[in-house]
Structures are given as structure tokens and as C-alpha cells.
């Protein structure tokens, strides 16, 4: 992110771990038959229409102060946290808005659900961008819309990835909220007070995608589905773990150990996903987090190479063995035998 003046606009630097913008096969999506789960969709739609957080995202007097007293490194890390969160929420808004438009004629119930979820995501992104403005910056969302490359995912991959994204978002927000409720001295900015209600939006969105998956048993009830569920669980967990390893100083600033925080979020998300996915990852295996630690260290090495004044040829040469080691660690993680979800009896609050 670069700044030149007050209220300057910033655009996110894209890396392998940057929040992605997605699109899908809208024609295939319009053909999905959700009649087997129609009652659940009707109930979800009523919840979305209720709009429980309509009056929640309102800035109060605590925001009306200078934040120049924040230590410079903490401020930079916090701004990056806001920027990444805003990008992710805005990505969800764009996808859901387009899905609502494309499905309006073929499946009006699903279309309205997507429309109301896009409302939530736009509200979140706007609230985050307003927070960024408190630091004399703003995220150029219009530029992001035009400049970002869109990743094409089939509907079932959208369902897997977005379900997990919403559920892991719930556990990330609620874990931070509960920690700062117990330790308010670490609440460096008032946005954290909004996380309890905020994460309920994430939870409702996750429940919607769970209902979509349940309405399409072919996405859950065969060997191919089991393999894809393992893949997306690992992808989402590894992405979060590597990202947070790079930003451990931010979590330290709000009184959290980033590794312990991630372990808790992964365990809770794994339990939540086991209610829908046919398998869960065996995160109790001692080697599970050991492999993730090794991947995080290797990712740090890749970043350090990028920061050196090497030519691209030299950088790629130095990165190749690190990529190979990271790939092997991720493969070892994937090959850890999963647990059948039916055998998991943990109760998730």
C-alpha cells in the first residue's frame, strides 16, 4: 500500500495469499434444483429479511479521535488488517450481487438470499473502509473492481470455499471479540466492539451455503466429494495460518498469540464443517501443526527473497527448492487420514 496525502486511495498488492475475487458458471448455477431443501431456504430468507444488524454498524463518539498515538508498526499492521478484511468483504459483495442478478428469473428465493447477503457484505466493506479513512487513507474499491483478476470456480467449488470462508470468518471474529471482552486494555481501536454481531452475519451466510450443499447430495456423498472437501479444508486453513504467521506482531498488539489463535480457529471451524462435510481433518495429529509451522517458515523465506535486490532469475532460482519443500509439506498434510464426520460428537457453540 502506498500513501501520498490525506485521504489518498490505496490499492491492494496481490500475492498468492491475497483475498481472491471469484466468478462462476452462472448457467450451471441456474440449473441447480434446491427443492429437496426448500423449507430451510424459506427460513433462511426470513432471517435475511429480518436484517438484525440494520442499526448495528453505526459509528459512535469513540471513533471521533486521533489515532496518531498508535505505535507506527502496529498502525501499519492494523491498516493492513483493515485493508485485507475490506477486500475480502467487497469480493463477497461482488459475487453475491452478480449471483442475485443472474438467478432472479430462474430461482427467485436463492436470488433474494444472495441479494440480502450482498447487502451484508457491502455494509461490512463500507464500515471497514470508513475505519481506514480514520488513518487518512481509503481503499479504492472501484479500482479493485476493474483491475482484479477473477478466479473462475464451478458452483460446487464456490459452495465449498465460500461456506468455509464464512464459517472461519465467524470463528475469527468471535474469538477476537471474546478475547478483547476479557482484556479491553488490548482493544486498540473501537471496531472490535462490533465483532459479536458482525460474526453472526458470517454465520448466517455459512448456514446458507450449508443448505445449498445439503440440497446437492452429489457434492457430499461420494469419494470425489470427500477428496475435494479435504482439499478445501486444508487450503483455507493453510492460507489463514501462513497469512497470520506473517502478521504475528499485529496479534501480539491486541494481546493474542497468533499461533494459538489460529489453532483454536482451525479446531472450531473443523468441528463446524464436520456437520456438513463428510470428512474433517485430523487436527489432533501432532504432525498437523508441525507441517503448517514448516510451511509458514518457508513462506517467510520466500518473502525475504522478494525483499532482496536480486534479479527475477536469481529470485526464482532461490525460490524453487523452497516451493518444492512447501509443496511436500502440504502434500503430507493432505495425506493425513481424515476423520469421518459421523464420528465427531463435539458440540459447537
Automatic annotation (TrEMBL):
Name the chemical reaction catalysed here: Mg-protoporphyrin IX 13-monomethyl ester + 3 NADPH + 3 O2 + 2 H(+) = 3,8-divinyl protochlorophyllide a + 3 NADP(+) + 5 H2O
Entry EC no(s): 1.14.13.81
Task: List the Pfam families hit by this protein, alphabetically.
Answer: Rubrerythrin
The GO biological-process annotations, alphabetized, read as: chlorophyll biosynthetic process; photosynthesis
User: Per the record's keyword annotation, is Lipid metabolism included, yes or no?
Assistant: no
The enzyme class is oxidoreductase
Name a GO molecular-function annotation.
iron ion binding
Q: What Gene3D superfamilies does this protein map onto?
A: 1.20.1260.10
- Looking at the keywords, is NADP present? yes
Rubrerythrin diiron-binding domain ranges (all copies): 80-213
Family per record: Belongs to the AcsF family.
- Job description of the protein: Catalyzes the formation of the isocyclic ring in chlorophyll biosynthesis. Mediates the cyclase reaction, which results in the formation of divinylprotochlorophyllide (Pchlide) characteristic of all chlorophylls from magnesium-protoporphyrin IX 13-monomethyl ester (MgPMME).
The record's listing under HAMAP family reads: AcsF (MF_01840)
- Provide the protein name: Probable magnesium-protoporphyrin IX monomethyl ester [oxidative] cyclase
